[in-house]
């Protein structure tokens, strides 16, 4: 089990911010998630928000920073060996049709890469969810093939349709609802990444994997109907990578 | 029920906030000025968590379809019931058929209308606070009917919160150092804590931008948690204060953190008004 040098900072009156060394990798993320699991046992009243190299603990009222930090540090110092978790990988269908992928042609020209090849590279990896934020259900994914890195558009669009799949810099992801945005849009996914009327509004958690797979327009249409009629089912598998 | 005859500039239902879903990117939402919302609820003996109406800049016109007890706190917006002037921070009994109107804000910009027992609009993910991608609507529209509590009972002696009123004339915004405060140069810290800032036109339930910038910088952080009241510093030196509907994560340095009382006071301020950051002792 890796042990990292953590820093503990007060964050306003109500929160404590724990930070790991500044890097984006799986071992930091796994350490954050295991620590989070143990903190939840002793401090169930705290909300915990994980991100790339941080874990924010938020209370509903002012905290005693010194006391809380001491308690949390003790949990980390005790060390923890939790059984290695299998990673849950969600299969997310994406339609790369040009009707949805409004920037695909431009992207393909700039990259001097046929669209087929872009789709292959985009659907190949299992991406890691490092953080969920920006919008309800918006995942920050790591693992984009470096050949697909593309700066954000110089002028962000005022509105990008719900489900749009884009690439912005080294990141790729899905817009869970209509929103403004500056990413290059290459496709659309019909799956509901955030559904407030469901008991579990967001199926996916930080630390899970995401595997995109290509679908055609008629499949996209069918799945959209399945989502609307609430018979759509998310597909996932366990990976021990 | 209350029927909406006119909407006002931006009117919504808010409660004490939507907690427990931040890790999925769901903002807290809730009343921007918690102090005034609590006051209106307390006057009626409501619970702190009961939903109130948040009225911004200009008021709606509301028709009471049933009897109700109401209290108005926060910004003073010259409320009238059936053309009779009302005061803030008083309890009024309103009969069915009455019409509540508001005039121009004369102090503050956000006013809170509480009804006995609270508004009973739909609860989503544990909260009645309106937020666009979570609740079906995010603001009042004409013809809407807002459900009220069924036959609520007015308690005899409601408990009023202490320190329940703002000093609206104060421009002092109390802050603590944010997680990235120490990244700032001496000069930037001085600019931040010695300067007076004005609120930019871009101010809403998500964030308040400030007109003045401080020295630009090239510090960056990996995307991490943000809170209502976080002051972010963009690379060009612009200051953005996150508010109740703000996103839950961000990649800009978090240089200051407003106290809860400061968030409430700032919520009553609008474009061009001055603020002065003062470190909490």
**DSSP strand tally of chain B:** 20
Mean pLDDT metric of chain A: 93
Outline the low-pLDDT stretches of chain A.
none
Strand content of chain A: 25-35%
Helices and strands, with pairings:
The complex is a heterodimer of chains A (241) and B (281).
Chain A (H helix, E strand, L loop, with lengths): L6 E5 L3 E5 L6 H17 L4 E5 L2 E5 L6 H14 L8 E9 L8 H8 L3 H9 L3 E6 L6 E4 L14 E4 L3 E5 L2 E4 L4 E3 L2 E5 L20 E7 L1 H12 L6 E5 L2
Parallel strand pairs in A: 5-13
Antiparallel strand pairs in A: 1-2, 2-4, 3-4, 5-14, 6-7, 6-13, 8-11, 9-10, 9-12
Chain B lengths: L1 E5 L3 E5 L19 H10 L8 E5 L4 E4 L3 E9 L3 E2 L2 E2 L5 E4 L4 E3 L5 E9 L29 E2 L25 E6 L8 H9 L2 E7 L3 E7 L10 E2 L4 E4 L4 E5 L6 E2 L3 E5 L1 H7 L7 E6 L2
Parallel strand pairs in B: 12-20
Antiparallel strand pairs in B: 1-4, 1-11, 2-3, 3-10, 4-9, 5-8, 5-10, 6-7, 6-9, 12-19, 13-14, 13-20, 14-17, 15-18, 16-17, 16-19
């Amino acid at each position: 089990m890796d042990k990292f040098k953590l820093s503990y900072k007060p964050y306003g009156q109500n929160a404590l911010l724990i930070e790991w060394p500044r890097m984006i990798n799986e071992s930091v993320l796994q350490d954050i998630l295991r620590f989070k699991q143990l903190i939840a046992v002793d401090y169930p009243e705290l909300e915990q928000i994980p991100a790339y190299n941080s874990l924010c603990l938020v209370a509903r009222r002012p905290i005693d920073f010194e006391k809380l930090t001491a308690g949390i540090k003790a949990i980390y110092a005790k060390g923890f060996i939790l059984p290695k978790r299998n990673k849950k990988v969600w299969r997310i269908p994406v339609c790369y049709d040009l009707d949805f992928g409004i920037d695909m042609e431009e992207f393909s020209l700039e990259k001097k890469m046929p669209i087929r090849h872009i789709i292959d590279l985009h659907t190949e990896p299992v991406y890691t969810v490092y953080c969920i934020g920006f919008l309800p259900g918006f995942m920050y994914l790591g693992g984009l093939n470096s050949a697909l890195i593309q700066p954000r558009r110089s002028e962000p669009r005022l509105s990008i349709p719900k489900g749009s799949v884009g690439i912005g810099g080294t990141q790729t992801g899905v817009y869970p609802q209509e929103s403004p945005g500056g990413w290059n849009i290459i496709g659309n996914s019909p799956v509901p990444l955030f559904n407030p009327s469901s008991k579990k509004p967001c199926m996916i958690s930080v630390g899970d994997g995401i595997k995109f797979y290509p679908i055609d327009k008629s499949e996209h249409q069918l799945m959209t109907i399945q989502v609307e009629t609430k018979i759509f089912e998310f597909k996932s598998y366990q990976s021990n990578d | 029920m209350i029927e909406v005859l006119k909407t006002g500039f931006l009117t919504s239902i808010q409660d004490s906030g939507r907690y427990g879903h931040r890790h999925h990117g769901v903002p807290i939402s809730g009343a921007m000025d918690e102090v005034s919302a609590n006051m209106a609820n307390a006057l009626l003996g409501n619970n702190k968590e009961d939903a109130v109406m948040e009225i911004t800049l200009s008021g709606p016109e509301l028709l009471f379809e049933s009897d109700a007890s109401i209290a108005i706190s926060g910004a003073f917006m010259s409320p009238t019931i059936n053309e009779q002037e009302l005061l803030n921070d008083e309890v009024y009994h309103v009969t069915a058929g009455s019409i509540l109107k508001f005039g121009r804000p004369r102090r503050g910009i956000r006013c809170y209308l509480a009804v006995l027992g609270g508004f009973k609009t739909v609860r989503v993910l544990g909260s009645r606070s309106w937020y666009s991608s979570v609740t079906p609507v995010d603001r009042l529209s004409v013809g809407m009917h807002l459900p009220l509590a069924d036959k609520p009972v007015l308690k005899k002696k409601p408990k009023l919160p202490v320190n329940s009123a703002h000093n609206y004339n104060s421009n002092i915004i109390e802050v603590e150092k944010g997680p990235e405060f120490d990244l700032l140069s001496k000069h930037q810290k001085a600019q931040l804590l010695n300067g007076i800032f004005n609120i930019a036109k871009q101010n809403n339930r998500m964030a308040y931008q400030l007109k003045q910038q401080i020295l630009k910088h090239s510090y960056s952080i990996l995307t991490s948690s943000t809170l209502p009241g976080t002051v972010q510093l963009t690379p060009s030196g612009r200051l953005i204060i996150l508010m109740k509907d703000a996103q839950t994560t961000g990649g800009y340095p978090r240089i200051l953190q407003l106290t809860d009382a400061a968030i409430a006071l700032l919520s009553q301020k609008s474009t061009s008004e001055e603020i002065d950051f003062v470190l909490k002792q």
